[in-house]
Design a protein that fits this description.
single chain
Amino acid sequence: MNSPVATLGRQAAMVSILATIYFLAAAITTQVLITHYNVISDYISDYAIGPWGWIYASAFWASCIGSIALAISLTYLIPSNALSKVGVILLVIVGITYAIDSLFPTDILPPGAPPATAVGTVHFVDALFGWVLFTISAILLSSRLKRDVYWRRWRTILFSLAWLSALLLVVLVAVIVSKKPFGGVAEKAFILDRNVWALAFGLLVFNSPGAFADVARRSIAPRLR
């Protein structure tokens, strides 16, 4: 019989899975409904502006909830020796950056142009901060999985996706700095990889041995010390 802790871990994993699926659905929906943006050059945050903007704005909150839920599920269901505590903390902070992105909308600007308002500046700096923290978190969390038998077999996939996000982030920053009209597609590639990693991790932790084991004596406090 599963302990309350294992049950909570699985519930958190399910929340993360559903939140990631919602984000992907919302992102695709905005691409269909909002046609006056250029998929190649315009950044995805632009889709949170205007009559249909609430759809992608809600996707920010889905990512916020999903990241924090994933951090909780990893904390409860991954063995301590295979869990990067720093990676978990960074993942929670990443979740907070999504909420900030929603509260501070982007400026609609030409490719490579700097933010024109204080609100837009907060959005840009926060987004960049979140991108970097996510990449570091994903690499840390994925790399430590080699210490557990179950997770070792999945580590290569998660680790590859994590390093792919690092590569795509470098490309994205290079495109932004060079002001090339490819920022939109570069950003969308990074975001897609990020969500595939989160979805895969959520599914794997939901079905992990820790989700079914009797771990009644484990608690979150000792794991984060």
